[in-house]
Amino acid sequence: MNKLNKIWVVAITALSTHSFVTASEVGESSELSLEKLLDIEVVESTGFFAGDEKKNPGYLNIIDMDEIDLGPQRTLRDILEKKAPSFYMVRHHNNGDALGVRGFAVNNSSKTMVMQDGMNLNLRYNGGYFLGFRSPLMGDTSRIEVANSPSALVHGSGAIFGFVNSVSKNGQDYQGLELSAERGNVDGSRSAEVSYGHAFSGDTDLFFYAGVHDADGFIPSHVFEEDYEVDPNQSKVRAVGSPNKKISSLFRSGQFEFKLYYSDINATPDSIQINKARYMHFEQFGSFIKYDWNMTPYETLVIDTSGLISDYGFHKDFMFDSADQEDEYDGGGEQYVSTKLIQKTTRFNDHNLAIGTQIVKRQFLGDQWKLSSEELEGDVSSPEGSWLETSYFAEDVWSITDKIAITSGIRFDALRNATIDEKDIEDGENIVKRGGIAYLWNEDTTFKLSYQEGFRFPDASNYSLAKKEIVGYDEEGDEIFERRNIKPESSESIELNASFGRAFNINGLSMDLNLFRNKNYDSIKWDKRHSDEPKKIGQGWINADEEVETLGGEFIVNFDVDRYDLNSYFSFSYAENRSDLDIWQFFPEKIFKAGFSKGFLGNRLVWVNDFYLDHGFGELKHGVDEDAWLDKRSSWDTAINYNVNNSMKVKVAAQNVTEETGAALNVQKWRAYNGNLGSEKRIVYGSLDYQF
Length: 692
Prior knowledge:
Elements: H1 3-16, H2 34-38, E1 60-64, H3 65-70, H4 76-83, E2 87-92, E3 96-101, E4 112-116, E5 119-120, E6 141-147, H5 152-155, E7 162-168, E8 176-184, E9 190-201, E10 204-214, E11 244-253, E12 256-267, E13 280-294, E14 299-315, E15 329-345, E16 351-365, E17 384-399, E18 404-420, E19 423-424, E20 428-442, E21 445-456, H6 460-464, E22 468-473, E23 479-483, E24 489-500, E25 509-521, E26 524-527, E27 540-543, E28 548-561, E29 564-576, E30 590-600, E31 605-615, H7 626-629, E32 633-643, E33 648-655, E34 683-691
Parallel strand pairs: 4-7
Antiparallel strand pairs: 1-6, 2-3, 4-5, 6-7, 8-9, 8-34, 9-10, 10-11, 11-12, 12-13, 13-14, 14-15, 15-16, 16-17, 17-18, 18-19, 18-20, 20-21, 21-24, 22-23, 24-25, 25-28, 26-27, 28-29, 29-30, 30-31, 31-32, 32-33, 33-34
């Protein structure tokens, strides 16, 4: 890589990584030299070559956890809603937290892929990723990479809206023993974390992490009826299987990586049903092995094998005011094994070419939990079955000049041998494409125009609970019903990005401007309507007839000077063709996020503030008062950090200081004040961190 290309990599990496004063830099200048910037690890999650994120299509936001550690955010949900442009949270009484992106949200997170070091954590039973958004156990994460646009060419089925990739800490950059503890008012929540990093040599290291979080439980507040009050004499609701736990480790040696990952999350969110709350359970164990085999100076074969076992479910029909409860659980489990092979070559002049294949074997366990000793009883609703996913892909990044790069690629995916609830499912196929052109105006300014596509094969529950249709009549003249065929849903995005690493020739000022037009086709939704059909056909999953188009943009400003740091994110989006969409789909159209930090006493004392404001939903459904749906939501979060010495740091933080409540909805925007296991309006907590 020549010097100009290195500057290109550094300029965009520095622009994407916000320049908050980090814990490792307390007492020092927060400005990084060019030599230090050149040492920053470049991302690989947007393409097949490290560093090509600057050339690859779309916008990537890199959230540095050293920055987050100084702020009031404590969960992945908080981080995404406060630090990722165009991201916001909704919630559902069964599916838990769900992500909305660029003006489009549904009642689950299946359209945004959530990953750990590139390992897919989404459930394919139903709903994608949910309870993991609530966990405050984040001490093993070094940064979070967030893409706002479809990324199926690199990551396959599920990346319709984009992806969220948590990158683990390693033993080279995080050496030594670290202990952390937190105590807060979220139902008496408390957590403890320990991590240890060790470098055996310059290319061999190990990082280990363990964390535990617990809480006393809560008395559910009203959610829907304004005049509903809870009897204070009722016992608190406590999640089954508490406390929450997380254990992870990462071993690296040369081009070899081995990861172990375990997470057990139990929570009891408010229910939309009066006098009722469900214990929710989400447990995962996974690992991956990655090896980059440098066959020649020009060719590298990437071998990536991963496996994940997941348990999910909830305590069946738990009534919090009932003294006698039998331990019955609804839910199930699933597991997959994935093998990906990528052949990368730089043999051709000015071309980085990657071709590859991936095979995923996925099994749905129905009424079985493999990671928990709890027994599932009663009428368990989870499907059983399996399928095989195969894919082939290729992409080329052509550096026409030192300033211009063109990306083009294509991917073919197939779903084969699918059987759900003893019924054979029709084979599915899909092709996605992406392309883009990047132009480096100078070392501070880059322009990109891109086109990307996303898709998702239906979840197992979509096949199992597809809506019925009349296919014929028997000899007695009675209707014969069969489940409808559910097609893959897809998306496409056209996006224009402009990045100014030093805007208006002002040191410390950077800006990003993104304009987009997204379209979503065949969106899978839950349909309760009967129209002229016989009522006994009932409800179920169907593909929406109408497409949804969202138009909008994002404007990101960062200003870092001396000991001050300002950042702001403004996003707007407008959805067309939404008049007949499912009742769970909402469209907050304007979102403003801002952050401000100030260092004192040579940056030993750091004060961090974050602000959030959105304005309203679009189309109104479900018979809820219009003023409630269109009500704005705002919050102010703040944190004060003090470095006692080089080893010890203390923090006091408060979320939703102004105690704004937001709209009280059936399925609602996730109110900023709701806690990990309860429903306090204001979260206040303190933490202590000690490094040996």
